[in-house]
Automatic annotation (TrEMBL), chain A:
InterPro entries: ABC-Purine-Binding, PnrA-like. GO terms for cellular component: plasma membrane. Transmembrane segments: none annotated. Gene3D superfamilies: 3.40.50.2300. This is Simple sugar transport system substrate-binding protein. Residues 26-298 form the ABC transporter substrate-binding protein PnrA-like domain. Pfam families: Bmp (PF02608). Keywords: Signal, Sugar transport, Transport. The keyword Signal applies. Residues 1-23 form the signal peptide.
TrEMBL record, chain B:
One of its GO terms (cellular component) is plasma membrane. Its main location: membrane. One of its GO terms (molecular function) is transmembrane transporter activity. It is a multi-pass membrane protein. This is Nucleoside ABC transporter membrane protein. The keyword Cytoplasm does not apply. It comes from Roseibium marinum. The keyword Ion transport does not apply. The chain crosses the membrane at residues 29-51, 58-84, 90-111, 139-156, 186-208, 220-244, 264-282. Keywords: Cell membrane, Membrane, Transmembrane, Transmembrane helix. The lineage of its organism: Bacteria, Pseudomonadati, Pseudomonadota, Alphaproteobacteria, Hyphomicrobiales. It comes from the Bacteria. It is found in: Cell membrane.
Length: 354, 305
């Protein structure tokens, strides 16, 4: 893996890797929304890419672009990869959805894989992980461990995946403490350690003693550590940043999926699909339960086992924030309802930005 | 509650303040350095790396200042002595800083950092409200204010400041009077680099003690905007930095507070709306703006040989 060019324009950083003339059978390319050094979302995708390199050796060449802003810039980045002879392009953020589809139309022979989106085409597959399964578990832990009965949630953008995460967290918490309160702060960014830290401070100052996040940096957990609050790692195991504060982390493990899909391209069996796997398939992994009393860790493990056994955290009774019924007792929401979630469950102390 | 908000505002405003006051001096000398973000991020990574290796926050800060100065020396050499285009060179400096910091910082990703200790004066620091706000900050916060005071004094009350402003306002006349325009500008550029490096160190050693790529997240650009916002007056930089910090922090506090119900997108855009508003108000008084704008800002100077 040779890095030939490292150039960045303001917030637009480009890293192109690999040599132009190569004997590899397949070129797999990745577009990341953050820097691979974020130790969160993009870092984990890059770990998946490295796993692909390790698995296939000379047969597969990889390349990546990091810190590609969502929106029109992404289209240029994706198109550049398509022109450069990439056979399969993984676009790893929700905001690349329309750009991915647009470029895919122009390059019917290139395979596209869009993470966390919901639009597919003949050559565009989508993939995502059931992070909400992990969020249900950490919600339960939060309710057990919180002394104030209030948790703070640092949210990025009001897209279904994030909303579902908030709901799953609160449902988990309510299963332990029906009166549990959740404060949500939208920072409108995926990655800004300073702003995330400020949000965490604001939440702690307003009584939250559990901080959880749907943004990519380790800063909120660090604030939790300093302020004597607790929290959960996001995307990767962040225990090094918060030895006393992290209870567990929801780890994204993209390696199995990337290896599988690249193998399919090699074999010529690749098809457009929507993949949505979770704890059971190993795409979502819980970091070791630490800093917890034994009974709470056992509860978390039991819930994890139950979810791995096929139980859906979004199983009724679920009441929406406006009081209407989302799911009757014992009825689980279907995948479409979870992937398109645009409502809060009852008990969220926030109005969903529209 | 108010105290908690204020404490967060101080940490949010400090890096902006320090980087902006440095850039203000640079622009007062007639040079536009758009590379603040790049110098800042280099300061952040070098400060973190040195503090991490030596275990000393002070050494980290010193190294960060040196890194910022090294970056600015490169910029100064290119635009002053080789008369390269200032805008392009400044942008290139940012690109270089972001890329190079990522390279240096690769080994430090996921490594917990070191926090600069905060001041503690027995008695004073324990006074409610006043103690935590005024007597429990880290050294860089105080250094930031000292810098602003020193810059304000030097610019308007000393001969050195007069020379600096003369060079920025009319380099030909300053040259004719026998002042070395390039030397003054180079020193100003170095000062700007040192400040940007210090601001970077604040990010990686005090604000969020860790290294992650791109962690300055555009604060260098905000600092640049603050210089214009302040119409090149040091004390207004403080007002601007705190206004900007306050509005962005209040946004987060308002959201966490159940009584307030304002769309978060609107709150997030408030700092920028405030900037536009102030710019409109400032430019309404055209005479004042012209008086304070360095007339030779961005114009290259080539002495007759």
């Amino acid at each position: 893996m040779k890095s030939l060019l490292k150039a960045t324009v303001a917030a637009f950083a480009i890293v192109a890797a690999g040599s132009a003339a190569s004997a590899a059978d397949v070129k797999a390319c990745f577009i990341y929304v953050g820097p691979i050094g974020d130790f969160g979302w993009s870092y984990q995708h890059d770990q998946g890419r490295l796993a692909v390199e390790e698995q296939f050796g000379d047969k597969v060449e990889t390349a990546y672009l990091e810190s590609v802003p969502e929106g029109p810039d992404a289209e240029r980045a994706i198109e550049r990869f398509a022109r450069e002879g990439c056979n399969i392009i993984f676009t790893t953020s929700f905001g690349y959805m329309n750009q991915t589809l647009k470029v895919a139309k122009k390059f019917p022979d290139v395979k596209f894989e869009h993470a966390t989106g919901y639009k597919t085409a003949d050559n565009v597959a989508t993939y995502n992980s059931k992070f909400h399964q992990g969020r249900y578990i950490i919600g339960q832990i939060a309710a057990k461990q919180s002394k104030t009965g209030v948790a703070g949630y640092i949210a990025s953008f009001p897209i279904p995946e994030v909303v579902a995460g908030i709901n799953a967290f609160l449902l988990g918490a309510q299963s332990v403490n029906p009166d549990f309160k959740l404060k949500v702060v939208w920072v409108n960014t995926w990655f800004d350690p300073g702003k995330e830290a400020d949000a965490a401070k604001a939440l702690v100052d307003q009584g939250a003693d559990i901080i959880t996040q749907h943004t990519d940096s380790t800063a909120p957990l660090q604030v939790a550590q300093e302020r004597g609050a607790h929290g959960f790692g996001q995307a990767s195991d962040m225990i090094n940043f918060a030895k006393d504060a992290q209870y567990t982390a929801i780890i994204d493990d993209w390696a199995p999926y990337y290896i599988e899909r690249v193998q399919e391209v090699l074999d010529g069996t690749w098809k457009s699909e929507s993949t949505w796997d979770g704890l059971a398939e190993g795409h979502v992994v819980m970091a070791p339960y630490t800093n917890l009393p034994e009974d709470v860790a056992e509860m978390a493990e039991a819930t994890e086992a139950k979810i791995k056994g096929g139980w859906e955290p979004f199983t009724g009774p679920i009441t929406k924030q406006d009081g209407s019924v989302a799911a009757e007792d014992g009825v689980a929401l279907d995948d479409g309802a979870i992937l398109g979630m645009n409502w809060y469950v009852q008990g969220v102390d926030d109005k969903l930005p529209q | 509650m108010f105290e908690a908000v204020l404490l967060t505002v101080i940490t949010a405003a400090t890096p902006l303040l320090i980087a902006a006051v440095g850039e203000l001096v640079v622009e007062r000398s007639g040079v536009l350095n758009l590379g603040v973000e790049g110098m800042m991020i280099m300061g952040a990574v070098v400060g973190f790396a040195v503090a991490n290796q030596t275990g000393s926050g002070t050494l980290g800060v010193v190294a960060a200042v040196a890194a910022g100065m090294a970056m600015s020396a490169l910029f100064g050499f290119l635009v002053l002595f080789l008369v390269a285009n200032q805008v392009a060179t400044g942008l290139a400096l940012t690109i270089l800083g972001i890329g190079f910091s990522g390279l240096i910082g690769e080994a430090f990703i996921g490594v917990p950092g070191l926090r600069i200790p905060s001041l503690y004066i027995p008695g004073l620091s324990d006074i409610p409200f006043i103690g935590p706000v005024f007597f429990q900050q880290d050294a860089i916060v105080y250094l930031g204010f000292a810098l602003v005071a020193a810059v304000a004094y030097t610019l308007f009350r000393t001969r050195l400041g007069l020379v600096l402003r003369a060079v920025g306002d009319n380099h030909t006349s300053a040259h004719a009077l026998g002042y070395s325009v390039l030397k003054v500008r180079f020193l100003a550029v170095l000062f700007g680099g040192a400040c940007a490096g210090l601001a970077g160190a604040y990010m990686s050693l005090a604000y969020t003690p860790q290294w992650v790529e791109n962690m300055t997240a555009g604060r260098g650009w905000i600092a640049l905007a603050l210089v214009v916002f302040s119409s090149w007056l040091p004390l207004r930089v403080v007002a601007g930095a705190y206004l900007f910090g306050a509005v962005s922090v209040l946004n987060l506090h308002a959201q966490a507070h159940e009584m307030v119900n304002i769309p978060s997108q609107l709150l997030s855009s408030l700092p920028y709306l405030a900037t536009i508003l102030v710019l409109v108000l400032i430019s309404a008084n055209r005479r004042l703006t012209l008086v304070n704008t360095p007339a030779c800002l961005g114009k290259p100077f080539v002495p007759d040989r």
